[in-house]
Fold this sequence. Notes:
The protein is mainly α. The protein has five helices and two strands. Strands 1-2 form a two-stranded antiparallel ribbon. Helix 2 runs antiparallel to helix 4 and helix 4 runs antiparallel to helix 5. The longest helix has 29 residues. The N and C termini lie far apart (about 70 Å).
Amino acid sequence: MVGQVIEWPRVRIKKPGWLVIPSATTAFIATMIGYFVLVSGVIYDIIHEPPSIGSRIDAHGHQRPIVFKANSLHSQYILEGLAAGMLFCVGGLGLLLMLAAEKPSLSRLHRYLCLSLGGACMLGGFLASRAFIHIKFPSYLRSM
């Protein structure tokens, strides 16, 4: 119906020679870097410019470095965000390793290696993230 009322222009568009479709590996790496940047809070770090680490004075009067800004939900140190983002990426890579174990072309040894390494990455990322939460919020999810 629209083609009868409007005459479409005859335009020939050629694809530029320099434009190529990236390989699957390149797309995966770009996606992982983008995911790391988003979950580690780099945008927050650019806008608010927090210090990379903090410090506190202990009982003896010495200054000690701290990485986690405790009891503060809406702020972070730079290294705190980067460490948490790395743990999330490790957990995601573990999930991808477990999914890769489903390929029928894998040998039994490689399948077990993918499953065990993927499970270890997922479990390690989860437990370390949970430890980070308990450092940041000491009374979070504790029984009374």
